């Protein structure tokens, strides 16, 4: 019995130390309403879109960017329509503005296309001049060189004038950037690619993307297809074994591996990536491609806190008073049991804030109110337990027996109430976006931590 109690105490101490470490090593960031930030105003490039494609373009782009920048809904990023084809992105001062720009300005279009067979003489057992020499065309027979140059120029001209139709053209081009072993660029060239249903796998059929490593333990991006994408991948790779497949992201070839065997539901994108680049790519691929590119060089405006100083001070004061009131009420009504409940509430608050810091969540005034609401609701669990203990004591039971019965009888009522709320939070996370997801995550963490503190911590104390 003593050993069991000791391990329970050790568990609580480890949780407290872990939470303290999270708050020490990870800053708890303030959101736009408390700290201010930067407004980035982008214009959507609709020059190559017809009227049908322009319809609803803002909402489509906004939805994709919200998924990219705020997957869990924990960042205080606001995206609003600006004019006819503009988007205003409000970025908190605590976020890396340049990284946000990098993620936003990439279209996220991923494709897998077979390299044209006229490059075959460049690939020998001793060297691959296609991937090592920017002037590789000079190594080809004059007839092949002229033919490839003509096709590349024709496609580039069509793209420049907005007349290139990727769904109908059997050929495509993509840029390949040549870098040395240290990642330094020494050239670039356009590569001619096949673009037919039997030589192309569209990247919009991905079901998942994740960070991984290649065979040399270097950072890479892993991906998985949905059922349609897997069938297409199996078809294309089965018919092109021994040929090179270009992995094209936003019009740039990341790598050109040789197909060694059939590939169905998953693969890997290799290249000279840093870990940060891999993480950004994963975010972009998971969110999906933008319906149109955003024009570079956005308008930047520095913004102050959305709430005035008086509103912030008033909000902070009301929150502090509410928290103190709950503390005092519990001590007055339940005496030393109320003090135990207050300790559990403080630990509950510590756990929530630690999780928010760990996941780099932005702390907003409504968020603070929501956290305190969750903490306040956790008092209900302690009240149920304490009332059961009082009932057992009134029946003449010993203190030890009353405590055991109080926790046992209150357990299922507390468990059922919190589980039903947790189910609601899961549904909100699945169907919600932005702040709704953030509220669902915070609510879920609050529910789980309140269960831990009410049913485990207070019992040990």
Structure description:
The chain is α+β, with helices and mostly antiparallel strands and about 450 residues long. The protein folds into 3 domains: about 1-30 and about 310-460, Multidrug efflux transporter AcrB transmembrane fold (Up-down Bundle), CATH 1.20.1640; about 35-105 and about 295-305, 2-Layer Sandwich (Alpha-Beta Plaits); about 110-280, Gyrase A, domain 2. It contains 14 helices and 15 strands. The protein has helices at about 1-25, 30-35, 50-55, 55-70, 95-105, 130, 140-160, 225-240, 275-285, 310-335, 335-360, 365-395, 400-430, 435-460; strands spanning about 30, 35-45, 80, 85-90, 110-115, 170-180, 185-195, 200, 205-215, 220-225, 245-250, 250-255, 265-270, 300-305, 360-365. Strands 7-6-12-11-5-8 form a 6-stranded mixed β-sheet. A 4-stranded antiparallel β-sheet has the order 3-4-2-14, covered by helices on one side. Strands 9-10-13 form a 3-stranded antiparallel β-sheet. α1 (about 1-25) crosses α11 (about 335-360). The protein starts with a helix and ends with a helix.
Q: What attributes does this structure have?
A:
Multidrug efflux transporter AcrB transmembrane fold; 15 strands; four-stranded antiparallel beta sheet; Gyrase A, domain 2; 461 residues; six-stranded mixed beta sheet; Alpha-Beta Plaits; 14 helices; alpha+beta; elongated
Give a quick precis of the structure.
This protein is α+β, with helices and mostly antiparallel strands and 461 residues long. It is built from 14 helices and 15 strands.
């Amino acid at each position: 019995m003593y050993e069991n109690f000791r391990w329970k105490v050790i568990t609580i101490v480890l949780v407290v130390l872990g939470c303290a470490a999270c708050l020490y090593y990870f800053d708890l960031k303030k959101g736009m309403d408390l700290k201010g930030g930067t407004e980035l105003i982008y214009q959507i490039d609709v020059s190559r879109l017809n009227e049908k494609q322009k319809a609803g373009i803002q909402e489509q782009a906004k939805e994709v960017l919200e998924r990219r920048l705020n997957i869990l809904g924990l960042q205080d990023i606001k995206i609003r329509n600006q004019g006819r084809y503009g988007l205003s992105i409000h970025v908190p001062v605590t976020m890396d503005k340049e990284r946000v720009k990098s993620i936003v300005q990439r279209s996220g279009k991923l494709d897998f296309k077979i390299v044209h067979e006229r490059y075959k003489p460049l690939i020998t057992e001793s060297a691959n001049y296609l991937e090592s020499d920017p002037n590789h065309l000079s190594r080809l027979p004059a007839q092949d060189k002229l033919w490839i140059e003509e096709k590349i120029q024709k496609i580039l001209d069509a793209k420049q004038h907005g007349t290139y139709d990727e769904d109908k053209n059997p050929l495509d081009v993509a840029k390949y950037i040549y870098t040395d072993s240290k990642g330094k660029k020494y050239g670039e060239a356009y590569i001619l690619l096949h673009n037919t249903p039997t030589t192309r796998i569209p990247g919009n059929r991905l079901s998942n993307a994740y960070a991984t490593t290649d065979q040399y333990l270097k950072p890479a991006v892993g991906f998985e297809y949905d059922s349609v994408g897997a069938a297409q991948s199996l078809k294309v790779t089965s018919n092109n074994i021994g040929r090179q497949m270009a992995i094209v992201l936003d019009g740039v070839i990341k790598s050109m591996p040789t197909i060694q065997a059939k590939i169905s539901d998953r693969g890997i994108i290799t290249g000279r990536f840093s870990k940060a680049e891999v993480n950004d790519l994963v975010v972009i691929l998971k969110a999906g491609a933008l319906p149109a590119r955003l024009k570079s060089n956005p308008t930047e405006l520095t913004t102050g806190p959305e709430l005035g100083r008086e509103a912030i001070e008033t909000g902070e004061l009301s929150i502090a008073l509410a928290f103190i009131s709950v503390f005092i009420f519990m001590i007055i009504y339940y005496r030393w049991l109320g003090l135990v409940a207050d300790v559990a509430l403080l630990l509950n608050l510590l756990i929530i804030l630690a999780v928010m810091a760990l996941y780099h969540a932005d702390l907003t005034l409504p968020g603070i109110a929501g956290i305190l609401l969750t903490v306040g609701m956790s008092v209900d669990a302690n009240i149920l337990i304490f009332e059961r203990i009082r009932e057992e004591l009134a029946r003449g039971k010993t203190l030890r027996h009353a405590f055991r019965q109080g926790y046992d009888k209150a357990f299922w009522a507390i468990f059922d109430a919190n589980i039903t709320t947790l189910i609601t939070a899961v549904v909100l996370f699945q169907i919600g976006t932005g702040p709704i997801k953030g509220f669902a995550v915070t609510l879920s963490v609050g529910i789980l931590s309140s269960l831990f503190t009410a049913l485990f911590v207070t019992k040990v104390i």
